[in-house]
Design goal:
By secondary structure, the chain is an alpha/beta fold. The protein has 20 helices and 22 strands. 36% of the residues lie in helices and 18% in strands. The strands form 5 sheets. Strands 3-2-4-5-7-6 form a 6-stranded parallel beta sheet. The chain has a 6-stranded parallel beta sheet with strand order 11-10-9-12-13-14, with helices on both faces. The chain has 3 domains: 168 residues, Thiamin diphosphate (ThDP)-binding fold, Pyr/PP domains (Rossmann fold, 3-Layer(aba) Sandwich); 166 residues, Rossmann fold (3-Layer(aba) Sandwich), CATH 3.40.50; 193 residues, Thiamin diphosphate (ThDP)-binding fold, Pyr/PP domains (Rossmann fold), CATH 3.40.50.
Length: 558
């Protein structure tokens, strides 16, 4: 055992490394110099990604965790830094992403005495983080770090905030040593799996729903094998399209902002619904107008790692606490049905979905739907795609085709500004993978400054800006509520090509959706690093299915 005295800052980094964490994202601050010094001492042994805004850093940490399964780590200073990072904590809580936010705090004993940049961190983060720890005494640092890691990873994973008093970071302690945390898999009881299988076999109109984020590749393969053997119709929850091969004959669409009409109708008649890994929320229930009432005609099964997160919108007939790998492995080992009665329905739903995802034609207009579909068909498999928030996302969610091994980084809380930093984190985590960030012109400028890191590190990623010159989502809702009376949605944008080139980023502008594919491949052939394409689209195409003039029904675009 190492009995050499270590500073609190050193113990913090030692604890991260003991759990296999070798990277953090930060905006530096004087309130955590002790932790920064511990990183400096390691040299190349720890990768510190320096960001330009704490919101971008927190988004990167969240996306990094999604990529490698370990808690993402974000380091920020007190007060303004902690406040700026909150959007990443909010996102991680909704996604179920393990994340550690390390905050340099005011000096010990100075709380509530008008200390510089003081903030009540437990009060501020109490509704967002799974737990908030404060290290005001050197002796507690090892225990706090160990507890923080366990809380972030256990049950439904999520964000944990740890505040370190500025002066305490320089104090010395004799470490007792930290073992890697080994969280035991949560396996379902065999009898519960048998009940689910029995219900499915007896069903007339079953539906398998996939959601959540804790889906390693093996679990995705197992559920695909099971569904295909049973010829089950499979749908994904909002922004979880990558969980199942979109080209599979079993995949029938996403229950999103707009659900494919045939699938929406099927939801009303499905007699057994099995939801794996996710939740039913406002989006999936169409603002709580469906799938919220217990019905004698429907048996609802929900499977997830934390019992408290089950049954928030619809009480399940059977709630099962389980990790996805364990449950899906149990399903995959079940014998298939020779000729399920619902096989014809699955084919019909699939055919209807194929029709639904064909781009609506808008004569004489630059249509992002056609550009997205063509680009997705030309890209290599196993790629990463990131999305933030805005109407541009609906064109991707409806027309981009996700295949086995693909990753979709698109938080269900749909935050603007997420796409660019998430793509950067993904490219850092897996440098050989192709990473594509779709972003709208409004979404892009919220964190565009982080692209300096992509250029500095020569990351293999591309940015496609769908530029319609407006805040499209807000404009759409304005047109629905107050037709012809928009306000605050027209954008005065910079020249995105000059902006990109000022950072050293190769960039091209496309004004014809048919040119996007050739432009993307030409840029990729000329560089292994990052590049940007601006696709100038028509603001009148307010959703994948409607023009502004016709936007009088529910918004389209899932």
């Amino acid at each position: 055992m190492n009995t050499t005295a270590r500073t609190v800052g050193q113990v913090v980094i030692d604890a991260l490394r003991a759990q296999g964490i070798r990277r953090a994202f930060c905006v530096p601050g004087e309130s955590y110099l002790g932790i920064l010094e511990a990183v400096r001492e390691l040299g190349d042994g720890f990768d510190l990604v320096v960001c330009r805004h704490e919101g971008g850093a927190a988004y990167m940490a969240e996306a990094s965790a999604r990529m490698d399964g370990l808690p993402g780590v974000c380091m920020v200073t007190r007060g303004p830094g902690a406040c700026n990072a909150s959007i990443g904590i909010h996102t991680a809580r909704h996604e179920g992403t393990p994340l550690l936010l390390l905050v340099g705090d005011v000096t010990a004993g100075s709380k509530s005495q008008a200390a510089f940049q003081d903030i009540d961190l437990p009060g501020f983060y109490g509704s967002m983080a799974k737990q908030v720890f404060q290290v005001d005494h050197a002796a507690s640092v090892e225990t706090v770090m160990r507890q923080a890691f366990r809380v972030a990873m256990s049950g439904k994973p999520g964000p944990v905030v740890i505040a370190f008093a500025e002066d305490v970071q320089f104090e010395s302690v004799t470490p007792r040593g930290t073992l890697p945390e080994t969280l035991q898999p949560i396996a379902p009881a065999a009898s519960l799996v048998s009940q689910v299988l029995a219900r499915l076999r007896a069903a007339k109109a079953p539906l398998l729903l996939l959601g959540g984020t804790q889906w390693p590749e093996a679990a995705r393969r197992d559920v695909a094998d099971f569904a295909q053997a049973m010829q089950l119709p499979v749908a994904s929850t909002f922004r979880r399209l990558e969980l199942f091969d979109n080209e599979s004959p079993c995949y029938v669409g996403s229950i999103g902002v707009v659900t494919p009409p045939a699938l929406a109708g099927y939801l009303e008649q499905a007699d057994v619904v099995v939801l794996l890994g996710g939740q039913l929320g406002e989006i999936e229930t169409a603002r709580y107008s469906r799938l919220t009432s217990v019905s004698e005609q429907r048996f609802f099964v929900q499977v997830g790692p934390q019992i408290e997160a089950l049954g928030l919108a619809l009480q399940p007939n059977l709630a099962i606490t389980s990790d996805m790998p364990c449950f899906c492995a149990a399903l995959a080992s079940a014998p298939a049905l020779a000729a399920p009665s619902w096989a014809g329905t699955t084919r019909e739903l699939r055919a209807a979905f194929e029709q639904f995802r064909q781009p609506v034609q808008f004569a004489g207009k630059v249509n992002p739907a056609q550009a997205v579909m063509a680009l997705s068909q030309s890209l290599p498999g196993g790629m990463v795609c990131s999305l933030g928030g805005g109407n541009y996302t609906h064109f991707v969610l409806r027309h981009h085709r996700f295949r086995p091994g693909d990753v979709l980084l698109a938080p269900i809380c749909a935050p603007m500004g997420y796409s660019v930093p998430a793509a950067i984190a993904a490219a850092i985590a897996d440098p050989q993978r192709e990473v594509l960030a779709y972003t709208g012109d409004g979404c892009f400028l919220m964190n565009a400054q982080e692209l300096v890191t992509a250029v500095q590190r020569k990351l293999r990623l591309s940015i496609v800006i769908l530029n319609n010159g407006i805040y499209g989502a807000i404009r759409m809702h304005q047109e629905l509520k107050y037709p012809g009376r928009p306000i605050a949605t027209k954008l005065h944008n910079p020249d995105f090509l000059k902006y990109a080139e000022a950072m050293g980023l190769p960039a091209r502008r496309v004004e014809d959706h048919g040119q996007l594919v050739a432009t993307w491949h030409a840029l990729r052939a000329s560089t292994d690093g990052p590049f940007l394409i601006e696709l100038v689209t028509d603001p009148d195409i307010i959703s994948p299915a409607k023009l502004i003039a016709a936007a009088t029904a529910a918004p389209s675009g899932s």
